[in-house]
């Protein structure tokens, strides 16, 4: 059922996809869909949650073992490279669904609220990266923790990934390399 919903959202968009279509394509009664997900936005939320971490019910990305290990990484350049890799992997998995969500947000209050929630959640995780760098004394002179958090938030945004990879045709690997170098250049001492 989840795969049917994903395919329909990507093919038709959020507004044009109905729970009945998802039910029909997945051969699951609509009542079951509603029981499992409560609403259409509930389905999209579950899809995005799974895409972000790569596994259903895995929790926040920053709480995953790989991210936690990177927050403790003593080499700031390796730390930023590791987070750039996680960012690439996450964006590759989430880009089609993120486009659906952003497209839906213009006309759907629940979708707009989900965009705001995801942006805040992403920012909270990225502030932890800035905090780890600041506590380690790794930030370039003149770069405050708040500035570092803002730069990380902007550079790691799904919008930048979409511009470079989807719109400009960069490979995901090229994006990761660029992101790593840009984070290092902007945040660490020269």
Look at the structure and give the mean pLDDT: 93
Distance between the termini: 51 Å
Tell me the strand percentage band: under 5%
Structural class given helices, strands, pairing? mainly alpha
CATH superfamily, please? Tetracycline Repressor, domain 2
Query: Could you say what the CATH topology is called?
Result: Tetracycline Repressor, domain 2
Number of strands: 0
The helix count comes to: 10
The CATH C-level class name: Mainly Alpha
Description:
- Residues 18-37 bind DNA.
- This is TetR/AcrR family transcriptional regulator.
- Keywords: DNA-binding, Transcription, Transcription regulation.
- Residues 1-55 form the HTH tetR-type domain.
- The protein is an all-alpha fold.
- It has one domain (2-187): Tetracycline Repressor, domain 2 (Orthogonal Bundle).
- Helix content is 75%, strand content 0%.
- It is built from 10 helices and no strands.
- It has helices at 2-12, 19-26, 30-37, 40-53, 65-71, 76-105, 109-135, 145-155, 158-167, 172-187.
- The longest helix is centred in the middle third of the chain and has 30 residues, at 76-105.
- The termini are far apart.
